[in-house]
Each structure stands twice: as structure tokens, then as C-alpha cells.
Amino acid sequence: MTTEQTSAEQTSEAPGTAASLPQLNRTLHAAPKPPVRIVHLGLGAFHRSHQAWYTSQAGDAADWGIASFTGRRPDAAVALAEQDGLFTLVERADSGDSFAVVGSIVEAVDGADVQRLAELVAAPATAMVTLTVTEAAYRLGADGKLDTGAADVAADLELLGSGSGNPSTPLGRLVLALAARKAAGAGPIAVVCCDNLANNGTVAHNAVTGLAAAWDADLAAWVEANVSFVSTSVDRITPRTTEADIAVVEAACGYHDDSPVVAEPFTNWVLSGDFPAGRPRWEDAGAVFVDHIEPFENRKLWLLNGAHSLLAYAGQLRGHTTVAEALADPECRKAVESFWDEAEANLSGAAAAGADLQIPAYRDALLARFSNARIAHHLAQIAMDGSTKLRMRAVPVLLAERGQGRSGAAAALMIAAWMDFSAAAETFHDPLAAEVAEANKLDGTERVRALLGLVDPALAADHAVVELVAGLLGAFAASS
Fold first, then answer.
1. For 10, which of 47, 214, 226, 360 is 20 to 30 Å away at the CA?
2. How far apart are CA 198 and CA 85, in angstroms?
3. Residue 218 pairs with which residues in a beta bridge?
4. What is the DSSP letter of 303?
5. pTM of the model as a whole
6. C-alpha–C-alpha distance, residues 18 and 248, integer Å
7. Contacts of 368 (CB under 8 A, 6+ apart)
């Protein structure tokens, strides 16, 4: 359940200081506390603006509480736990802000508390585990299988095999928790991947079963028989919360909230798969359940996320800091429109699989959403983990275009911009940052080939693609 007010309803009285304002919690704000039936890995802003919001809007929200676990650090769980899981969702439109208290998260837990995770996943009442652990966390190789040679995967396997400690990765922790559910005889469960990956249900399946099989063949067989992996397409622009946002909530709502979330009004959720232990009525909030999700995934990954990545690299190279700033730059806007033309050509006809994707309207809506200057969506945040993201956002469009006898130059331009950014950025966050740094020591086409090989080895072996990308380097000089 949520309660709402708009900026128009705010009083003109001067707000108190943060120290004098009451803290948001379930004593101050009488929100019901539903039982835990959903366990979430990846307690961050997007999870709260999306899955937690949808759950709070369901007609049966009183039956569905979420226990959310952090990833690398406990900070978000500590702050949210002090507020009994409550937080303010600020919907930021061009016309003003509206505010709602979301109460669906009933436990906020440090991700390192693997014992509590196992207890909750093993509980018969738990119906699903939802995931927002980032694209890089699944550790799949180019063959689509788990890379058991990755250092963190190997370390988790050693810990699981010896029983001498707790896994440190979300994947390892989930597998250990599923083993606890198997041991408890708690029955089938759904794993719902909400990360920006094509066929993300299959990705989660391959990662989880791969790790389970490498540890315990019996567990892997149980997972195959008892765990449903649901694919999703998720969408809601959710920038990082700032101190200014916290102050806005204080002024508007008259309480102190350490953990508000700011998001655009638009939201979308498409799901495909089975929920053997039940699910909330998310459709009450607009979620859509389909048999074939791939066209919807590709529409979002290519048009929204692809444009975001292109703007992240091109925009920063041209001196911009936010999506709205970059889109207002004619050079960046032209690159986005060209990429969208290529993507749209491969989202129509047979590729749509009968789905009404309404691509022209979707593109128009994206332009309006990206242009919302009140949503400060920072390019530096989007630019992280590019070697992983480009595999889903640029490579499929480039391959599809070349498969149709066209150049794919607009998709290749995104990859070239990433290469330029990787060499120019003062701070470069990527799971392959060390390998990128080594590749950047090379010159000319050898550098391009090495960097392309980190994104897609098959493309790196295609001399024509290497030459295409090389010819597009330097396209985004800093704007004057």
C-alpha cells in the first residue's frame, strides 16, 4: 500500500530541520506489514522504484511482503531497516513531484547474512526470488554457460564444497539458499530475473544450474525439476538519490527519510514464465504477462538501453553529464536516431513474433522521457560495465544489420564511442577493466581488434567489422 501527495498539496510553512523532523517508520506512518513471500537480491534504487512499487500496488498487496538483501555493502539495508523498510517514492515529472510511501519491503538485510537468506528461501511461504544483481553478476561465458574459471565463481565453489564459509557473490548465495529449500522440502519456487539482459530467465537458469551442477549434481537436478526461471523486461528510469532529493522530501512530507527514491512517472513490466507457488496481482499496476517475451526485451534493450549506452559514451566525450544534456546535443541526437533506425528495422515483421510493439510511439515516448531535465540521470552511472552491456545493446543490432547486407554503422558507432571513452575516462568501471587497459596500450586496428574481442570474439575475427569500427573512432569530439 502507498499513500500519496503532490507538490501542489504542500503547505507554505517552513519545514523543520532534519534533526527536528520525525523519522519515517511504521510508527509514524501506519503501514501494514505483510508476511514475507518474496525474497529479493540486489536492494537498490531500481528495485524499490519498480518491483517493490508494483507489489505495493497489487490488489493483494497485504499478502505479499518482500525481504530485500543488499549486494556488496550493507549500507542500504541498514538505512532502510531503521525505517522499518518504508521509503518515499518521488515521481518526478516535468510538471512537478508527487510523493508516495511504499511499504512492501518488510525486511532489509545485509547481503552477507547468508543464514537469513537461506532461512527465508527455505520457508514454505516464500514463493519467489527476484533479482537485480546487474548484468555482470551472472558470469556467463561467450558460450552461454557459467564461467567456472572466473575468480569469484571459483572462490564460491571452493567455499560451497568445503562448507567452511559463505559465498560472496549473489549467484553463490542464491544457490546455497536453494540448497536449503531442497533440504527443507519446501517445494517449487520461481526465480524472477529483472536485470537488463536478453532472455534473462535463460541467463539466470544457466548461471544457477551451472553453479549448482559444479557443486552438487543432486541439487542441480532438484533445481531443474523445482525452480521456474521467469523472464522479464523492466523499465523505469531511476537516477541516484541526492542530498537535494532528501531535502525535497523533508520539505514536502514533514518527515526525514534517509532512503527516498526518485523515478520518472513512466513504468513498464513484461513477464513470461510460471509461478508455481503463486504471485502478487502485479497486473493491477499495469504489468503484462505474455507467452513470448523476446520482442519486448529487444525493444527495451535496443531502443532504451542501447540509446542510453550510446549517450553515456558519446555524451561524456562531448562534455555532457546527464541524459537530457546529451540528447539536446545535435550530434548525440543524430547518432541515437540512426541507431534507432537500425534497431527498428530488426524489430518488425517476423522479428516481432506477432507482438504489437508500436515502435514509432515507443521512440517518441523515449525522446520525451530522456528530455525530462528534472530527472538527472547521470551518464557516468550508465557507462559502467560497458563490455557486458554492449553485448546485449549494440552487438545484436550490428549482427542483424550485417546479416541483412547492411553495414550496421550506427551500432558500430556505439562500440567505437565506448572504445574512445575507455581511453579518455579518468575513471573506468568495467568487469574487464584490466583487460581493457592492456588493449588500450596497442595501436590502430590491433587495439580495435583487442577491444572488440572483449565484447564479442566473433566480431573481432571479422576484418570488415574491425575496419568499420576503426573508421568511426574519434567521431565525438568535445563540443565547444
1. 47
2. 31
3. none
4. I
5. 0.86
6. 11
7. none
